[in-house]
Amino acid sequence: MKNSNLDSPDLANSDLVKAESICKNFGDRRVLEDINLSIKPGQIVTLIGPNGAGKTTLVRIILGLIKADSGTILQAPSLNIGYMPQKVHVEPTMPLTVARFLKLANKNSDQNINATLQELNIAHLEKQQLSIISGGELQRVLLARALLRSPQLLVLDEPAQGIDLSGQAELYQLISEISTQKQCGVLMISHDLHLVMSATDEVICLNHHVCCHGKPEHVSTDPAYLDLFGASASQNLAIYTHHHNHEHDITGKIRAPEHD
Amino acid sequence: MIESIAIMLTTDFVIYALVAGIALSVIAGPLGSFIVWRRMSYFGDTLAHSALLGIAIGLITGSNPQLSIIICCLLFAFILTVLNRSSSVSTDTLLGILAHSSLALGIVVLAMADSVRVDLEAYLFGALLTISNADLIWTLAVVLIVSCTLYVFWNDLVSITVHAELAKIEGLNVNRLNLILVMLIALTIAVSMKIVGVLLVTSLLIIPPAAARHLAETPEQMAIKASGIGVLSVVLGLGCAFYFDVPVGPTIVIVATLIFLALYFTQSLRGSNSARG
């Protein structure tokens, strides 16, 4: 496992981060197998897949929080990453206002913090305790903390959890705007392809390996995607399919092709 | 009454006790807050117990007891942090084993070293009124080191406490900061021993922050108010102990507990009132 910040001939000039043949086992269980992906500035890449498919593990490897067993992560030099974790549990024993929480990230000026809070429509939360705001509000606060670092790459682990449907659409819209406006790359994990569709350039359908990937409208009709999520997940079934050469057993392993 | 206060304040050992107690309370506020936030009270207990082993080793080797307590505490803190990072044994169990084995070992070694008469009770429950000139200097030096380090690393330490992964991605060296925090706690516990003793050290660290929790909006407020409550407990505790002629360490802990209870009940009363309204 190399984790290189150096200019590398393997890293295309435009790539912010590039993962090459990433493999990871937890004990005997293979969680990730031969994953490749890359993210460019202004590009939104969405990882979808069932629970336990290795999405969060992959993101943690890309962030450098855990090491892959094999494979390479290449990062653009001095890449500034804004990360929005899946969960933040604030001990009720610690008093912490939203403003103070945001100040932890960097020595941000109050003005910066104010502007970001306004941008995300949560200016009223500034003096609230982090432990009592709602799930949806917390998600926005976490996004604010990620944005305050003026990141080149935003990594979002299920940004819309705990938010009602209309709020989710709004949030994805916001992420899409931010990405265009600030030309930052976005890597996010999501469960619902339909909600992220309009805000995504590339979808990677993950179940321990990359089942299929491409434009969202393409992936939503891909048999591999339908296989994972069931036909009901895709109401707008289109005519196009590609030749699907593998199936999954219950653990997500690839079965040998039955007919070729 | 006034007369006895006047006598108290002109007595050297009372002045020493007051200065040492107040200085320690000032750093115990922020450090204790970390212990509360990170649920490390059992960790503090273990270090305090290991301090007794430090005393025993100091006596046997004839080295400075204060120094051997500090070294022993730092060593234990280091071992615990490293084991905690790598081991699959539950932290709770690990701490339980180390706390009690080091306490037991300390007591047995002290009993065997019968060439020296040791006032075990003084180490278990503290003996603030017997602190010497040298003890005071040790205490003030540690307080100075700890408060400077805390000041420099404060934001980083709060950041890793709130969310270690976020802090790591934002460029902080989480492992190093953890170690710094643990070393500061170990140092503080090592010198606090003289004041409240092995068995009560953790309470001096935990009760003031717990009392300050509901008076605070931010981590900084909680830490500062905890220091204030700690100072108040030491001053009142020392006065009461002197006045009623009872052991100082336990009296300080009782005063701190009473302050905690008073604040807890006024806050929950206010809380239930506002909930109704």
From TrEMBL, chain A:
Biological process annotations from GO: response to zinc ion; zinc ion transport
Membrane-spanning segments: none
Domain ABC transporter: 17-232
Organism of this sequence: SAR86 cluster bacterium
Domain of life: Bacteria
Keyword terms, alphabetized: ATP-binding, Cell membrane, Ion transport, Membrane, Nucleotide-binding, Translocase, Transport, Zinc, Zinc transport
GO molecular function, one term: ATP hydrolysis activity
The protein's name in its UniProt record: Zinc ABC transporter ATP-binding protein ZnuC
Pfam families assigned: ABC_tran
Lineage: Bacteria, Pseudomonadati, Pseudomonadota, Gammaproteobacteria, SAR86 cluster
